[in-house]
Amino acid sequence: MSRPIISITEAALAKLIELRADEADADQLGLRLAIASGPGEDFRYDLSFDEYLKAAFTDEVRTHTGGEGASIKVIIPADDAERLLDATLDYTDSQGLVIRNPNRPEAPTVEGLVRDDELSAEIEAMVAADVNPALAAHGGFVTFMGHDGEGTVYMTMGGGCHGCSMSKMTMLEGVQTMLSEALPAVERVRDLTDHSTGSNPYYS
């Protein structure tokens, strides 16, 4: 990948350079940006300043330059590069640093669930075409985990639905209704999300 993996707005770049100026040896520091969440969890990010000359050989290092010529190097671990491709790092006074990532976490494999049959393909297609667009208004999305072959579909919820007090109702009433009305083989939806880990996705 020769092009930037993640875009940085002028506001975010200015804030990063301001924060870096308070660090010792600031001119040797870049921004290390890594995904800290586990498989199937909504993306959480670890942002820290690190010496870019000591970056691992496998790390992706890119230079981002602002309109006034100020620049910063961004260090991304190789394993996270694809999952951050086309994301944007922005900054506002009200939200702080925030990453807008169009990518979705990979669903973990859950033992005993089916994900590779015709019904799974139909569910995946409906989630992409109907369910997630409906949830997008609330900043959320669901990820299909599999089904048990007996009418129960398992999902996790991310984005604005993760940790939301209304998420269980949204899942059981909204998503279940959409799927069961369109797919007779789907009788119920179960939520596998650990909502205790839901948090504000912004970084200040």
SSE topology sketch:
Blueprint: E1 6-8, H1 10-20, E2 29-35, E3 45-51, E4 60-65, E5 71-76, H2 78-84, E6 87-92, E7 96-100, H3 118-135, E8 140-147, E9 152-159, H4 167-182, E10 188-191
Parallel strand pairs: 1-6, 2-5, 9-10
Antiparallel strand pairs: 2-3, 4-5, 6-7, 8-9
Number of domains: 2
Tell me how many strands there are.
10
Query: Low-confidence parts, pLDDT < 50 over ≥5 residues?
Result: 198-204
- The CATH class designation of the largest domain is Mainly Beta
Describe the structure.
This protein has two domains: 6-100, Sandwich (Hypothetical Protein Aq_1857, Chain: A); 118-197, 2-Layer Sandwich (GMP Synthetase, Chain A, domain 3). It is 25% helix and 29% strand. It contains four helices and ten strands. A four-stranded mixed beta sheet has the order 3-2-5-4. Strands 1-6-7 form a three-stranded mixed beta sheet. Strands 8-9-10 form a three-stranded mixed beta sheet. A hairpin with a 5-residue loop joins strand 4 and strand 5 (71-76). The protein is elongated, with a radius of gyration of 20 Å. The two termini are 29 Å apart.
